[in-house]
Amino acid sequence: MPANLTPQYMEAEEAYKRAITPEEKIDALEEMLRTIPKHKGTDKMQADIKRRIARLKEAGEAARKKGRPDPYRVEREGAGQVFVVGPPNSGKSALVGRLTNARVVVASYPFATVQPVPGMMKYEDILIQLVDTPPVLADNCPPALVASIRSGDAVLMVVDASSDSCLDDVQDLLDLLEERRVINQGKPHMAVLSKIDLPDAADNAEILLEAYPDISFVTVSAESREGLEELPRILFDMLDIIRLYSKPPGRDVDRAAPFVLKRGGTVAELAGAIHRDLPRTMKSARVWGSARFDGQPVPREYVLSDGDVVEFRT
């Protein structure tokens, strides 16, 4: 059976041949696997690509264990991981500093942030991880940093709305993140127009909203705190996640630490998040919240909603 390889696959294969670093090779191989036609004629090719990806990842893990950690790698914490990117002096570090406990470096000179700095942002009863990153430019965006950004759940693009170059900054960011295949595979992303309290910022924001009608924008000021209170809710919605609470039979609801699933998650998926054996041992489940009546028995395939309380019986 002919492979009938797509132009997207051929482009990714060329990128693999040009790749130098392990991160670039993994990136290209994953794109090859994503774009290769899925049929019997490509089964061996798919298996070979998967083997090459696995070998490269194993080699990277072995290197980290030998004391050569990746300076751009950030351990995931909280209900979601959002990478905050932008050009020099865009205000991203100040933004992350206001929203989290991160020890960011806020300075008037460019490239004050030299490696990713994670911090935890509180939204109601959960924490979302924001990661401040070194400034990204077309000629200053290491493949390892790109790999870390790509591994996150969402991307927040920060641009100084008071800058004369803000229109170009937005386009440059979009071009860079699309070229590096960060946001062209459905990864949630939005733009933050910072320093909205400065002269010309509001006028520039209006121009940007008109120029990019397909991009979600939010305007903020780390200095005056304008727009900061709304941002956690906006990021929660962008992550497309739901919070769920377990209720042991005959006991009160445990609201101290909600479980988090992607929107569309089912009772069976929640069971697996609670304990790996629970999907197998559960006999029934009852739901308070989205069900037609409180405590309604539901099947394993029942799709849960944000705030639902679930009781499992084993």
Structural account:
By secondary structure, the protein is α/β, with parallel strands linked by helices. It folds into three domains: 7-65, no CATH class; 81-239, Rossmann fold, CATH 3.40.50.300; 241-313, Ubiquitin-like (UB roll), CATH 3.10.20.30. It has ten helices and eleven strands. 36% of the residues lie in helices and 20% in strands. The protein has helices spanning 7-18, 22-35, 43-65, 92-99, 143-151, 166-179, 201-211, 231-239, 267-274, 278-281, and strands at residues 81-85, 117-123, 126-132, 154-160, 189-194, 217-219, 241-246, 254-262, 284-288, 296-298, 309-313. The longest helix is centred in the first third of the chain and has 23 residues, at 43-65. The protein is globular. The protein starts with 6 loop residues before the first helix and ends with a strand. The mean pLDDT is 89. The chain has a six-stranded mixed sheet, sandwiched between helices. The protein has a five-stranded mixed sheet with strand order 8-7-11-9-10.
Spell out the key features of this protein.
single chain; alpha/beta; Rossmann fold; Ubiquitin-like (UB roll); 3 domains; 6-stranded mixed sheet; about 35% helix; about 20% strand
**Number of spatially distinct domains:** 3
The averaged pLDDT comes out at 89
What is the terminal-to-terminal distance? 49 Å
The strand order across the widest sheet is 2-3-1-4-5-6
Number of helices: 10
**Beta-strand proportion:** 15-25%
CATH class of the largest domain: Alpha Beta
**Which fold name fills CATH's third level, the topology of the largest domain?**
Rossmann fold
How would you spell out the order of helices and strands?
HHHEHEEHEHEHEHEEHHEEE
Quaternary structure type: single chain
Low-confidence stretches: none
Helix content: 25-40%
Tertiary shape: globular
Give a count of the beta strands, DSSP E runs of length 2 or more.
11
The CATH superfamily of the largest domain is known as P-loop containing nucleotide triphosphate hydrolases
